[in-house]
Amino acid sequence: xxxxxxxxxxxxxxxxxxxxxxxxxxxxxxxxxxxxxxxxxxxxxxxxxxxxxxxxxxxxxxxxxxxxxxxxxxxxxxxxxxxxxxxxxxxxxxxxxxxxxxxxxxxxxxxxxxxxxxxxxxxxxxxxxxxxxxxxxxxxxxxxxxxxxxxxxxxxxxxxxxxxxxxxxx
Length: 170
Fold this sequence. Notes:
7 helices, elongated
C-alpha cells in the first residue's frame, strides 16, 4: 500500500514539477472557452434562414400562399416604384427602394439574397470609410474640389460681375 501511495504522489507531483502538462490543460481550456464564445457570437449574428416568412396557416394552403406572395410582390413593387420616382425628385429614393426590397424579402429568397449582399457591401464601405488613409484622401479631394469651384466662381465674378447667366449681354 505504501508503494501504491508513493506512486500516486509521484504521479501527482510530475505535472506540477514539469509545468508543461498544466499549461497545456490551461491552454486547451482557454481554447475551448474562446471557441464557445465564438460559436455564441456566430449564433447571435447568424442570419435568418431563407424562405417565406408568411404565417403557418397561410403556408398550409397553396392557393392562399400564392395569393399572399402576389400581394407582397405588388406592395413591394409599388414601394420600389415610388423609390425609383423619388431618385430624380426630392425624397429619400434609395431608402424607399431598400424598403421595398425588405418587403419583398419577407417572401422571396432572391430579395433576401440581394439584401444580404447589400448589407455586406454597405458594412464594408462603412469600414473602408473609417480607414484613416481613405478619410485623408476624401478630405484632400473635397478640398481640391472646393478650391476649383471657388476659382471658377472668382473668374465668373471678375469677368461678368454679379449677373445671372441668363442675363449676360455680349
